[in-house]
Amino acid sequence: MSQLATLAPDIIMAFGGTLVLLLGTRRSDKAVNDFLRWLSVIIIGGAALALAYTRPNSLPAAEGWIISSSINIVFGVIFLAILAWTVLAAKAPEHAAGEWHALLIYAGNGMLILARSGSLAALFLGIEILSLSLYVLISFFCHRGMALRGGTMYLVLAAFASAFLVFGLALVYASFGTLDLAELAQRVSSKGLFHAPMAMLGFGLFIVGVGFKLAAVPFHMWAADVYEASPGPVAGLIASASKGAVIAAFIPFLFLVNTHGDILWLISAASMIVGNLMGLLELRVKRILAYSSIAHIGYILVGYLAGYNGVGITGVGAMIFYVVAYALAIAGAFTALSFIERDHELGVRDLRGVARVSPALAFCILVFIISLAGIPPAIGFFGKLYLFSAGVSAGYIWLPVLGLLGSAIGVYYYLRIIVNLYMTPGENPNLKISYTPLQISIIIATAAAIVFFGCFPQTMITALKLF
Amino acid sequence: MLPLLIYGVMVVGLAVAAIGMSLLLGWPRHNPHKDMPYESGIAPTGDSRIRMSVPYYIVAIMFIMFDVEILLLYPWAVNLQELGWKGFAIAGIFMIFVAEGLIYAWARGGLSWRHLSTTASARTSSSQD
Amino acid sequence: MLPAEQALILAAILFVTGVIGVIVRRNLIFVLMSVEIMFNAAGLAFVAGSALHGQPDGQIFFIFILPVAAAEVAIGLALAVLVFQKYRTLDLWTIARSREE
Description:
The complex is a heterotrimer of chains A (467), B (129) and C (101). Chain B has 129 residues and is mainly alpha-helical.
């Protein structure tokens, strides 16, 4: 019975998604769309409640495929919250609201499985359920050529990356003979990886696959195009929750720091530098955010490398804190930008006059950008502080230095957005902003949360039981 | 590290060899008989580029999905006796999700050939203007 | 009886063939085929690993790889229909370079 309790969130999500999908086929008008939206929120909320009330470290369910440690539960609840947020803030398409909401729920189900995976098989299935839903969500508005192109590119590259990942897992399985993550970590520590070349290669391929999903630097080519092509809230979801879920699934592999630490170090350093430099050269807002998200993955990897080392603040704790801080800001920024209607792609100059037309929206975007840049009153500042201090106390000197340098570069392109936001209009007469009261209140609530946790970070640390 | 290196070299070497050898050994030689589409077979008639209708294509995609989904029932079928009623219940839940896909396709007109061909032609004409 | 290591080597060759296919080919359909080859190489490696260790987990994993690969390809083919209707080509480079709107 306790097994069923552990699986309850997944069961709720799977059946709920099915229900929404089938209900959506009957009629499509505004009333039905609103009903489906709230039904999806209720389903996601129910799953989050069921997850929050599972006891940590209870019995693993489904033959050890799903585990529930406290970290995994925290991650799962956060991802579901971001998902519910996306469902509420996004504009569902008129003709296919059922499919839209069902796919979002299925993506959430994938993230849940991924964040709580206790075996290589669950990890693979979680990643695939998530990516398969995202392929369709990206190219949902396929009458826009860009959406179709972005979706196709993402499909080809992500499938390629998945193949790397699963072949890597196959080599790991062939050399250690177990799919269970805890068992695997034990066998790796007793046998040692250096005497198992096949497993070394396998983990290398696995890192390539994970790097693709995270858009870390040598594997980041898709990020800018895909974010630009996808609908705003979906881009936010890819950048925040889906990356966070992959990071959560990557935590059980902390033993890789001993063997593949150099590679991870390089990926982290390169992501910080290249992401920020590319952001500097970009003039289109969504692409700037895409490059900044690449840089943020670099920062997060500093915490991963620090692992459980650190005085008071462990690397993993700092990483979770940062994932939450970053996810709130980037999801908010992408969604807020999607309210500004353009028939072509949103450039920095198109932001001129937003502050006059809608001061509330401009202020929210300002808060999100400040948090991403890591400027004090926002939560992003403490996120970076914890990450880099964990990095320093774990003995990495150069990574935090590079990170600070990168952040300094980053401030420039973040400022470029803010300056344009608050510039006087006049040359931007065809600015059109449209949102419902619900959408703007959600955005404002998120911005408020960012400022609140930025002023009192201790509340979040105790709430998440991090350090 | 050395065995890993050997392994890597072997893998890449074999793949390159397999592709390279066929290029090296099999110089492209042309003669009328060799250039026939089916050498020493029946000579084809008509254009080989027949236009597949889009409904056919979509039905084929659906066939692939349902075909492969049923594969997941094989391990259960093999261990039917040992798994008992619990296994039966789990397989039943799985079948609900397979049936969901079918009901969805049905409700959206994916099983009606006429519906598929009208939507496909509507899309094609709208994308051209 | 052949040792399982040889199956692993075959899987690696298949995998590299798939990688080369994805990199060299420019047609969407062939790229999808190459990805499918890579997935199936992983499946073969799993089955070989399960034979090496004498336990069924790897074979179960292979059964999970198949529907996932089929789903990837199904979505890919559905996108291919739309891409062809829009661009009148399946050449990935042409599609990537076209910057309309």
